Amino acid sequence: MAVATNLREQKVARMVEREVGPVWDDRFARLLWRHLPPLREGMVLDLHSGVGNTIEQLLTRLPASVRVLGLEPTEAKRSLAKSKIAPEWKNRVYLKAEGAASVADMGDALYDLVVANLVLSEAHDLSEALEGLIRVTKPGGTVMATLPMHGTWAEAEDLLREVLRDEGLDKAQNRLRRMAGLRPTGPSLATVLGGIGLSPAHYVVEQERFTLLFGSGREFLFSPLVELGPLRLWKAVIESEDGNPQRAFFRFKEAIDAYCTASVFTVTAVAGAIILQRPMAGEDPRTLPGAHYWRRYPGLDAMWLEAESGRMPDESLSSDIDVDLDADEPGGDEPESESAVVTAPQRVVPTSAEDEALRALMETPVSASSGDNNLDALLDQVLEFDSNQTSGTTEFEELDDEEVELVDVDPRRPGETLKRIKALLPPPKSVPPPPPGGKKSS
């Protein structure tokens, strides 16, 4: 039994490394590396190191005087993480067979940097988990964590709720809605961070939205990312009501296939990142994460500060955009009016070569003696068609059944109308060649 479990763990670890990590774990971790503090020395804690991608990035980006402790409870994942450690890194990294729960048994103020990529989403109490990470961080140290935000898997869970409703599984439908509501939003994260005693200057919350593409319902449900991620939670939701998971997921697959008949199944993921600094006595407010982040956007920072202090009326938050529509028109140097009026741009209808030829033909004077009734009738139809397209309103006249006449549709291919018009036109006048010597005849 132990051998079978070990083989299954090795298979899962390889799936995570090859198929899940590049599209999920590494995508979330990307939000952290842009905020990596410039450590010169110290100790870094990496919770749930997985297959070692985060450890590899930390050892690459931080100087040689910084050491890393990685916690990973799965032996197969630890083995893959060890295989990524270069020989020059062996004295800088330590791997222990522990999980995130071991943080509760650690001492206070041990690490200069704590990294928790996709760890907080498994926590039962987000506030308690964050407090534990802050407790083991030194004063002035940094905590960086990521987690899926509200809106992740939204399209898939909307379809699954429809299936559960059709199956009559109302309780499972409500549990699924409740589970989706547990994913935090940006404001809810700010509330949690404020509740544990952090000011807005001590933390930054970032969100990044990306999409995942699947070719069919089968590809979605059998994807390692879904199979090792939300699928087990969805199964637990359905089985909790004595439902038939096999039938429900078969209907779920059919719903996905019907939804993406002419295209791929697009699922949204919202990656969230928390960057916070543990408060300490005598800290410089200019070096705090919030102040450092908002220095990149001084205009927005000033506007938010005025709005929060109450000095800015609500009407000032709506910006007015003046558009000079007469910049290229004569008389555009006249003084602007007090209130600029922005009008919607006119709809531009693309024209083909055939349309241009018809319009040029309509502008060409036709001789009264030509007597070409076919050409006149054709031009009348074109003029009538053009007026119907450009007119703002269309009047409809009701006809009785006796007045309706069925007309066979002329199945013409594109371009044949232009050929017929050219055939009806008189041939161009022939111009005699110039006489020898290069002089034109008078």
Query: CATH topology of the domain at 1-148, anyone?
Result: Rossmann fold
From the N-terminal CA to the C-terminal CA, the straight-line distance is 109 Å
CATH superfamily of the domain at 1-148, by name, is Vaccinia Virus protein VP39
User: Which structural category do the helix and sheet elements fall into?
Assistant: alpha/beta
Which ranges are low-confidence, i.e. pLDDT below 50, for 5 or more consecutive residues?
319-349, 366-372, 385-394
Strand order of the largest sheet: 3-2-1-4-5-7-6
Rg for CA atoms: 35 Å
| Arithmetic mean pLDDT | 79
The shape, in one word, is: extended
Architecture of the domain at 1-148 in CATH? Answer: 3-Layer(aba) Sandwich
So what's the oligomer here?
A: single chain
Considering DSSP H and I runs of 4 or more, what fraction of the residues is helical? 40-55%
**Could you give the order of the helices and strands?**
HEHEHEEHEHHHEHHHHEHHHHH
Count, helices: 16
Assign the CATH class of the domain at 1-148.
Answer: Alpha Beta
Largest sheet: 7 strands, mixed
Strand segment count: 7
Structural account:
It is a single chain. The protein is of the alpha/beta class and 442 residues long. It has a domain at 1-148: Vaccinia Virus protein VP39 (Rossmann fold). It is 42% helix and 14% strand. The protein has 16 helices and seven strands. It has helices at 2-33, 53-61, 75-83, 126-135, 154-166, 170-181, 186-195, 217-221, 224-227, 230-239, 245-259, 289-294, 298-309, 353-363, 373-390, 416-424, and strands spanning 42-47, 66-71, 93-96, 111-117, 137-148, 203-214, 265-277. The chain has a seven-stranded mixed beta sheet, with helices on both faces. The model is unreliable at 319-349, 366-372 and 385-394 (pLDDT under 50).
